[in-house]
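1st attempt posting a full record on here, be nice pls
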Amino acid sequence: MGAPGSEWEKIESYSSLLVKNALTGSSAQYFLIMLQAMTQGKSIPGLLKYVQRRTTAYFEIFTPIIARAQKSGEAAKGDPQVLAAAYFSFLQGLALFVFHKKGLEKKITPEILLSVLRNDHTI
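the predicted structure (as tokens):
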């Protein structure tokens, strides 16, 4: 999130990194494990709290970036917290589909992920 450029360029950089690491790279399996931990990790002491802290930290950093990108007219209108939640939920949903539909990860681009936040809503 500390990439140089406008707030929208930071969102673009972050989206590229997420698609590469969470959906297509060697970290894709780790991302799925974290998703599973969020939904089923209650029996592992400390795991759910750890994942919640990390998720909250990313959310708290990303929300103001969206708000600033809205001020420049690049990000869609609406509550920045809701938009951040939609963005991360979309990413999580894509990760689950990639797990079940091999080859799909090659078709997912950062632009698809950005469509949740883009002001003009075109892909």
